[in-house]
Structure formats: C-alpha cells, structure tokens
Specification:
Length: 142
C-alpha cells in the first residue's frame, strides 16, 4: 500500500507542481511528515497507525519529485546525472541506516522498547513539523 500511495502521488506531481514551487513543496511535506509521525505516536489502533503511515508515504511521493526537480535546477547540465545519482544513493542510505539507528537508540537508551519508539516518534515528528514550518516561514519572507 505504501508503494502504491507513493507512486500515485508521484505520478500526479506535474499537476501539483503547477500550484506550488518545489522549494515550497519540500518543507510543506516535512510539515506533513511531522503531522503523520505525531499521529502515529498518538494512534491507539493498528488501523490508525496504518492510515498515518499511508499518509506519510503520500508525502514521500510528493517530496521525491520535488527533490529531483530542485537538484536538477541547482546544478549545470553536465553534473545533473551525477547529482541525481548522489541523491538516490543518499536516500537509499538513509532508508537503510535510519531504521537501524532508530532501533539502536531504542534498545540502548530505553528499558521498554514501546516507550522508546513512542518517544522517538514524538521527537522526530516535532522536529520535522517545526523544521518544515520554519523553512516555510523563511521562504515566505523572501
């Protein structure tokens, strides 16, 4: 379901990008990520957790084309393929290392895994939400 949601939104990026600039979409999605993570933190049933993770994946489907568009616009044509390769490598690295790090922190810093995961979801959700809002505000001042 996560991949289908991701692909569905990414396939509609052209329509979405007509309304908002990629520089606005990226921080806006971090706000969405933060809200989704906070909702996962607060969810009381597996169905609600699944729904929030689905929302998270919708945001990921929106942020990926925005990142690609931003990277392509920032570098000269001779470096575009290389930079997109670096971007893809960093995303895969994050997807690999992130869960391992998250689990490592929980297993070493908390006696109860559930308490640790909930605490980290709260912290990551707040950081994503606040960071996204601050970047949106910074772009609004320009």
């Amino acid at each position: 379901m996560v991949s289908i949601a991701n692909e569905t939104v990414a396939s509609q990026y052209g329509r979405i990008s007509r309304s908002l600039d990629p520089k606005e979409l990226i921080p806006l999605r971090f706000v969405g990520f933060g809200v989704s993570l906070l909702d996962v933190w607060a969810a009381s049933t597996p169905v609600l957790i699944g729904a929030m993770l689905l929302c998270f994946s919708l945001g990921f489907g929106l942020v990926m084309p925005s990142l690609d568009t931003s990277v392509v616009g920032l570098v000269s044509s001779q470096f575009r393929a290389s930079m997109l390769g670096v971007l893809t490598s960093m995303l895969w690295l994050g997807q690999t290392v992130g869960p391992i790090t998250f689990t490592g922190i929980v297993s070493t810093a908390f006696d109860e895994p559930v308490t640790g995961y909930r605490f980290l979801l709260l912290c990551c959700g707040m950081a994503s939400l606040v960071g996204g809002v601050l970047v949106l505000l910074a772009f609004g001042r320009r």
